[in-house]
Design a protein that fits this description.
This protein is mostly beta strands and about 120 residues long. It has one helix at about 65-70, and strands at about 10, 15, 25, 30-35, 40-50, 50-60, 75-80, 85-95, 100, 105-110, 115. The strands form 2 sheets. Strands 1, 2, 3, 6, 7, 8, 9, 10 and 11 form a 9-stranded antiparallel β-sheet that branches. A two-stranded antiparallel sheet has the order 4-5. The two termini are about 20 Å apart.
Length: about 120
């Protein structure tokens, strides 16, 4: 019987994030658009797309939001509770983390080269 994942473990250059439920990974790769002529669809055009990792993470006094915001050229490991692991290389923080004091969490988003399953 297959195992399904319900939990994600996310590390940014070895730092484990306290990710909350709902983390997402878009592995990137290519988008494809049709090439249409008067004769119909004759093929497609590929365009590269970056990988994206999004999560809300619990933030403690030990976490440094400014350091997270300054993340460039990082390696992100996205591991699922079912055992699948993906690497996103050359990752950067897409925007400064948005911190919410009422829930002690920050919304984080990173992007980088297309993910590799390891």
């Amino acid at each position: 019987m297959a195992n399904y994942s319900g939990i994600a473990y996310i590390r940014v250059d070895g730092l484990t994030l306290a990710s909350m439920p709902g983390a997402t990974l878009n592995p990137g790769g290519f988008t494809r658009e049709p090439v249409i002529t008067d004769s119909g669809i004759v093929g497609s055009i590929e365009k590269p797309v970056e990988a994206r990792v999004k999560c809300d993470a619990a933030i403690s006094t030990e976490d440094d939001l400014a350091k997270i915001a300054a993340t460039v050229n990082a390696t992100i490991t996205f591991e699922t509770s079912a055992g699948a692991t993906y690497l996103v290389r050359a990752a950067v923080c897409a925007a400064p983390p948005e911190y919410s004091s009422d829930s002690a969490k920050a919304s984080l988003e990173f992007f980088g080269k297309p993910a590799e399953k390891v």
